[in-house]
Backbone:
């Protein structure tokens, strides 16, 4: 079983990101449990969502404390907040990067990829919402599901132009990671 | 069809497939997504029902009570303060023998204000005359709703049913759920045929005054029906399996109990986490098992006793407490052993209140404490 922790601020679509990730894994033939750590949060407050992926039924319902994978949707959370807490050796982190925030120092035994998700999203979607780009990068970095499964999940979730553009954003994230990070 | 969707959405799909005719609810988190989905289905013409907006849970319960009395299939959902605000109507619905189905998206009760999960809300209304089932996962939540309508409308039962699913942990979790076809649901759940109903052409009175000469008989009748339901449920669960090709547990589920000397007893979503721990302890050669209680009311006392009678140490884990006494489920399990020859050590553990996360470590803490001396109430994960 692989455990994923997503760091975001309330309103940035962490729950949708978790749900898309779970749906993509489901499309790829895996079991997936995606759930938010729901709070009575105001917009902008730090929050988490979690996903577990497995080849069999997932029964464990606790939150994720020792993630195999990390997704940081808002890099400003890395200021004074240890997103790497409990991060497992051999883990993979995808950080939605922008220039104003310093990149994390390399950590032993884990891979940390920074992806300019919001910049890519601005080009493709016209809005700096990097979630689907980051998920594309996640697919490339972890191989937990294919780009096609992710794009299917996106087309299921959204409709019309928004769906098409987000599927394209996912592809761009996937290719960014393949070309520049590996 | 196997679908990947949010628990709330899955329940709304099941209510649609059950063809509820009148739905009334007042939005309160974490139940909101269920009734929002249903409102959308009604607006989109996918569900031929009347969705009645109300100003409070007291009114929502009153609307489904009145609608059910006219002989239509009804649905409502609530949680926490909302459920407590419904209480007087909940008793009335049971007294009128109306087959209302309600989803309780379990959540803690104020004060302090807390919107997160525990079982204090539904456990508080366990004596209202409603059958109460607790789901471990979203598949079970869906299946229990199908069973709920079938049981509620069975002419041998005619009582309301509350399906309890953990707020957020289940309602907001995305997982795979096998949703049935409409034809399967229609086969399992025929149209609701009321025994008596309000009809202007054949006027009757319902909920009349019944004094000391007859009130106690109404309570006797409900209690007898509850006891009868324990015998009716297995037969309907068999039918469920024939129609849907999947087993549904409705009273209890035994997990690795065969030779277990130490047994956990739990309800709701924490059962999944306990199963993981049981498997781990079994790998270490420890004879540990789990009894999942699904039916809290009627409480299948005899079946619980039979399942637990060979255990030496029993840990009852609950997300509720009768303050000043002990966990309500602990009292029930203890009473199952009352008057029996064997008396295992039965301890009570309270955990997960107000959304405190129940981890593998929490369950191991219970297991460590179990071999010590008997305790009625031990709070787990307490930070003091």
Residues:
């Amino acid at each position: 079983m692989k455990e994923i922790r997503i760091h975001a601020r309330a309103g940035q679509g962490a729950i949708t990101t978790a749900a898309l990730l779970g749906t993509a894994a489901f499309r790829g033939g895996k079991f997936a449990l995606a759930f938010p750590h729901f709070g009575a949060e105001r917009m902008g407050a730090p929050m988490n969502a979690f996903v577990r992926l497995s080849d069999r039924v997932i029964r464990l319902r606790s939150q994720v404390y020792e993630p195999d994978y990390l997704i940081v949707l808002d890099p400003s959370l890395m200021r004074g907040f240890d997103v790497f807490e409990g991060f497992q050796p051999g883990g993979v982190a995808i950080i939605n990067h922008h220039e104003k925030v310093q990149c994390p120092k390399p950590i032993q035994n884990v891979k940390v990829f920074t992806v300019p998700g919001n910049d890519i999203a601005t080009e493709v979607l016209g809005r700096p919402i990097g979630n689907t780009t980051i998920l594309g990068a996640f697919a490339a970095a972890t191989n937990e599901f294919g780009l096609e499964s992710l794009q299917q999940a996106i087309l299921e979730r959204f409709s019309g132009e928004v769906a098409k553009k987000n599927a394209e954003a996912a592809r761009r994230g996937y290719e960014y990671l393949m070309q520049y990070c590996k | 069809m196997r679908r990947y969707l949010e628990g709330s959405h899955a329940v709304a799909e099941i209510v649609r497939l059950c063809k509820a005719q009148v739905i009334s609810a007042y939005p309160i988190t974490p139940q909101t997504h269920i009734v929002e989905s249903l409102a959308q289905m009604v607006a989109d013409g996918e569900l031929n029902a009347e969705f009645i907006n109300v100003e409070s849970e007291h009114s929502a319960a009153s609307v489904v009570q009145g609608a059910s009395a006219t002989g239509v299939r009804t649905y409502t959902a609530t949680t926490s303060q909302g459920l407590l605000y419904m209480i007087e109507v909940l008793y009335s619905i049971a007294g009128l023998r109306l087959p209302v189905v309600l989803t309780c998206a379990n959540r803690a009760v104020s004060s302090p204000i807390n919107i997160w999960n525990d079982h204090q809300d539904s456990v508080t209304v366990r004596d209202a005359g409603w059958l109460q089932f607790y789901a471990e996962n979203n598949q079970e939540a869906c299946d229990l709703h199908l069973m709920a309508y079938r049981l509620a409308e069975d002419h041998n039962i005619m009582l309301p049913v509350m399906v309890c699913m953990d707020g957020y942990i289940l309602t907001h979790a995305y997982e795979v759920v096998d949703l049935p076809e409409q034809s399967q649901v229609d086969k399992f759940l025929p149209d609701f045929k009321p025994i008596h109903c309000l009809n202007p052409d054949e006027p009757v009175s319902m909920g009349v005054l019944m004094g000391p000469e007859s009130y106690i008989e109404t309570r006797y009748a409900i209690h007898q029906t509850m006891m009868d339901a324990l015998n009716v449920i297995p037969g309907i669960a068999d039918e469920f399996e024939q129609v849907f090709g999947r087993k549904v547990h409705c009273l209890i589920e035994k997990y690795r109990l065969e030779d277990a000397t130490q047994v956990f007893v739990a309800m709701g979503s924490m059962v999944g986490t306990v199963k993981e721990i049981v498997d781990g302890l079994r790998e270490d050669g420890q004879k540990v098992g789990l009894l999942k209680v699904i039916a809290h009311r009627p409480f299948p006392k005899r079946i619980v006793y039979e399942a637990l009678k060979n255990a030496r140490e029993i840990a009852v884990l609950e997300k509720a407490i009768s303050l000043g006494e002990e966990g309500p489920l602990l009292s029930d399990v203890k009473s199952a052993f009352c008057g029996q020859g064997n008396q295992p050590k039965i301890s009570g553990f309270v955990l997960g209140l107000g959304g405190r996360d129940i981890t593998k470590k929490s369950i191991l803490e219970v297991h460590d404490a179990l071999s010590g001396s008997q305790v009625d109430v031990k709070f787990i994960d307490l930070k003091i």
The interface with chain B takes residues 15, 18-19, 22-23, 26-27, 31-36, 38, 40, 58-63, 65 of chain A (CB under 8 Å). The mean pLDDT of chain A is 93. Residues 2-181 of chain A form a domain with the Pyruvate-ferredoxin Oxidoreductase; domain 3 fold (CATH 3.40.920.10). Residues 5 and 64 of chain A are 6 Å apart (CA to CA).
